Structure formats: structure tokens, C-alpha cells
């Protein structure tokens, strides 16, 4: 509901670093039409996934221009993502507001182990700070690379991805090659994993 269907989008840029992705966003944000003043459209870095993978998010036209600009610069791969909204960008502010209201009613206890907030890449234990960071991540950049690096610096050497897919565990292996990373996506996988503890 934050952004009407078809008005926002996301794209993955493969083979870029954060600085180049930001340059591409700055270029793609400007809509030029002959005889018309330039129009600035929202496009932002949504995810720094590490391993040369950056996801951008914003107005559909700006995201399409970013894909074209990335290809023109010789980026390894630039592809639109099949998503329903431009997640992790400022266009999602109405959703962030709704989430903030819902989280104010939720009971959040101090975690047993520190939580690494993906929007700050820092550990957090205070329940109110957790609420605030959960709201911020709706519109803020997911700092996955930095979050994994922070966990590795804290001594974490084993990562478990819960749920369908293996994308995150694959990204962890790119960021921290010596780390053990595995995906457990089915109830049977979870049972087998728990038996190893």
C-alpha cells in the first residue's frame, strides 16, 4: 500500500561496489525530457549484499535507467527483480509508519544473544532500540555485508539460514570464506540440524 503496484521496483547490480552503485543511482535519478526541466526521481541503494552485489530500489523509471546505466558502464550483470514494491527505500515511509505503530503495541524482551541490526550493522540488546531499528530498516539500506563482517569480528564462525533458499548462506561464504554457512529450509532440515547441536 505504500507504493501503488507498478510505480516502484528493484534491480540487482552484480560486479559493482557501493560507490559505483551510488554513482549509478545519482545518474539514474534524473529524468530528462527534451524541452522539459529535469525531474528527480527516488532511487537508492537498498541492499549491500557483499560479493559485488548491490540492490537498488525506487521509482520504476529510475530503476530501469539504473539498469541501463549499469550496462552502459560494463557492469557484469544488471537485472530487474520481480518484486511487489521498492523495499528498503524512502518510498516505503508509509509502511514504516504503520510498522512503528504496530511495534509500539508489541512486547519485545531483551534478546538472550545480541541482535545485529541490518540497518546499522551493530549489535543491539535494548528492546526500544530494536523497535526503532526494525522501523528504520523498512526505508533504510540493508547493510548485509557489514552485518556479516561485524558478526565475524565478534567471533561468529558458523551461520545458519532458516527458511527456503540458500541466497544468504551463499552471500555469507563470499563475505567470510572461512565461515561455515548452511541453509535449513524444511522441517526435516531443521530436525537434522538440531540433532547436530
TrEMBL record:
Transmembrane segments: none annotated. GO terms for cellular component: cytosol. Gene3D superfamilies: Malonyl-Coenzyme A Acyl Carrier Protein, domain 2. It catalyses: holo-[ACP] + malonyl-CoA = malonyl-[ACP] + CoA. The lineage of its organism: Bacteria, Pseudomonadati, Pseudomonadota, Alphaproteobacteria, Acetobacterales. This is [acyl-carrier-protein] S-malonyltransferase. Keywords: Acyltransferase, Transferase. SMART domains: PKS_AT. One of its GO terms (biological process) is fatty acid biosynthetic process. The keyword Transferase applies. Residues 1-189 form the Malonyl-CoA:ACP transacylase (MAT) domain. It comes from the Bacteria. Its EC number is 2.3.1.39. GO terms for molecular function: [acyl-carrier-protein] S-malonyltransferase activity. It comes from Nguyenibacter vanlangensis.
